[in-house]
TrEMBL record:
SUPFAM superfamilies in UniProt: Heme-dependent peroxidases (SSF48113)
Molecular function per GO: heme binding; metal ion binding; peroxidase activity
Signal sequence annotation: 1-15
Lipoprotein among keywords: no
Protein's UniProt name: Peroxidase
Key word Oxidoreductase present: yes
Biological process, per Gene Ontology: response to oxidative stress
Pfam families noted in UniProt: An_peroxidase (PF03098)
Record-linked PANTHER family: OXIDASE/PEROXIDASE, PEROXIDASE
Binding, heme b: H383
Keywords: Heme, Iron, Metal-binding, Oxidoreductase, Peroxidase, Signal
Amino acid sequence: MFRFFLLGVVSRICAESLFYDTFSGNVLSNDEVKVRIKKNITFWCVNEVLPCDPLERRRVDGSCNNLKHPSMGTIHSRPYRLLPAEYDKDYEPRKSNSGEPLPLSRSVRTTLVAEGQVPDSKFTQLVGDFWLHAVADVLSLHDTVNFLIWTTYCCEEKGKTRKECIPNIVPDDDPVHRFSSIRCLNQTRPLSFQSVGCLKNDTVPERVVTATVYFDLSHIYGNSLKELNAKGRLFEKGLLKYEVENGKIWPPSITIKQKEVCLMNQLPHETRCHDTPNLSVNGVVGTNIFMIWTWRFHNRVANVLSKLNKCWNDDRIFFTARDITIATSMQIFLYELMPTLMGKYNLLKEGVILSHKGFRDIYDEHVLPQISLEFPTVLRWAHMIQVGKQKMYDTKGNYLKQHQAANLTLRTGYLVDNIDYITQGVFRQPSGGFDYIVDPDIAELGLGDLQRAFDLLTNDLTKGRYLGLPPYIKYRQLCSGNIYSTFEDLLDVIDPQRIELLKEKYKHVEDIDLMAGIWLERPVKDGFVPVTLYCVVVEQLRRSVVSDRHWYERPNRPNAFTPEQLLEIRKTSVAQFLCSVGDSVTEIQPHAFLLPGPGNEIRSCSEIEKINLEVWKDRNCDMELRNESNSQF
Ligand SMILES: *[C@@H]1O[C@H](CO)[C@@H](O)[C@H](O)[C@H]1NC(C)=O
Ligand SMILES: *[C@@H]1O[C@H](CO)[C@@H](O)[C@H](O)[C@H]1NC(C)=O
Ligand SMILES: *[C@@H]1O[C@H](CO)[C@@H](O)[C@H](O)[C@H]1NC(C)=O
Ligand SMILES: *[C@@H]1O[C@H](CO)[C@@H](O)[C@H](O)[C@H]1NC(C)=O
Ligand SMILES: *[C@@H]1O[C@H](CO)[C@@H](O)[C@H](O)[C@H]1NC(C)=O
Ligand SMILES: *[C@@H]1O[C@H](CO)[C@@H](O)[C@H](O)[C@H]1NC(C)=O
């Protein structure tokens, strides 16, 4: 309390921080702030921003990126909608064309998407894992946390009358649960600026997001400087805090709150649980390993930089290492993963990626830094390609064992003895098939032992309805320019036999939900993802690049890379990343998102192209070194 008071006074006197309304991004007067303090809604509705310096680096909390709208892009900012919301009265989900409620989500899912385990013939598990890792940076998990931890009564009697509860009914003829007593799957209404008290309840509900909107690895570095300083930084040689266990480097761990965070650790044997900014490095297994590797990657970079540049202080090394780590992560995402999935030529044509290795300067301060509401929604299609079983191998590629992947969520402790085998698996095990089939574990046991039963796809469909997403055909029209008025009009993107499935559940073509359409679409030409997903993702990536003043490919951002440095960043690949920080990775195939095979044989890491950090050598340090004896430094 005392510290908080002091901080308040200090910041008011020296720095004159401003307070912004999270939704509008407008400055609040002192009186307006007081009202919000009284209502105890500052956490969600007010952002405090220290004065911007146009020359400073990317801030941890995302503020001051857009200098005209300093608070835009921080946590709790608002997403934009590609299409206007469509709700029924009281902002309940829209009705079908005939005026009846839309068909039950669970029955739509079980009719449209079959369950089975069909491995893909092209892609490795790294595809789904890196995808999730990259987008976890801009997503919020609070809606899942909500029904798992805060609002757990939605399938109980009490839940029936509560507005915050939107459980999924399981019909009596459900193909799986007709053999069980389960008739209800937990789910809560997405949190909105309205439900958390920032906006009046008689306005269109708008989702509130708890991540910064930039691809800035905020799920690793945290979303406030205070949090990063408290949990992340060692304040020595630019390093993140770390521990050594089992001969490996890990993020720092907690023991006290472990039971709350790493809920699924099997005590007493499994005790590792990470105390990182916002406790993030403890989630689903696929992202958890990437976050551990990224944590190590930062420190590897920092170690090299501090040896290279003896005159740099901790701060300079830390933020340069962060900048390099963010850039390599985005380079893999944008230039390796996305082209693999969406077609390189497509992305070149759309202007998402460059055809050369130089800079691009397309910053536009008039494009607000925002994530569309539809972006995280359509990405949930990735549940279709997730595998249920995490397979483990030794370093020679011999199969050892497997474990239900969902059952490794919130179970960091399992990794201590198994991360080597899991790592060997992610670039050898095929991804789930890019087909129209979902793994039964994802569709029935999506949250492992955290729930008795859980269907991730049903949850995704329902969520879209409560976010007020308009009908699928409106998105088709947005993406293709065509008008869709009959089911047959959809033949341009959906095969006839799958249109039959849609007709079975939806009476009118306008009734079809966005997710339902995406599940059944054909892939984009020269790519592997559904056409509407492609359309929404391309729109977002363009916006993310254009609206980020600190985007790594810009030549004139503060502390920009030199052309030589950018060229080094461009050499990154996921294979190289794994060679440098993956567990016991000494050999790997060069295109690690693709299964090893002819032309992509597993080979020694020494044959995989590396980044050379020499180009970060600061000549000024040599000069300073000579003066060292007679300087304070
Ligand atoms: C104020 O809001 C916070 C966060 O929403 C909550 O945790 C806390 O319990 C509230 N305090 C009071 C006094 O209502
Ligand atoms: C809107 O309703 C919710 C309950 O559903 C309540 O918690 C919230 O405070 C209300 N918001 C306002 C601004 O009154
Ligand atoms: C992250 O942690 C900081 C400090 O503990 C806290 O103030 C902030 O609300 C957290 N952010 C989120 C999104 O949980
Ligand atoms: C999850 O793992 C625990 C511990 O290994 C085990 O007891 C449990 O049966 C597993 N659950 C499922 C659904 O496989
Ligand atoms: C729903 O949540 C409650 C409370 O956590 C839990 O007891 C119940 O088993 C859950 N339902 C299902 C189907 O998992
Ligand atoms: C080192 O000494 C030279 C010559 O005295 C001077 O020009 C230079 O600025 C000094 N460098 C630093 C970093 O102090």
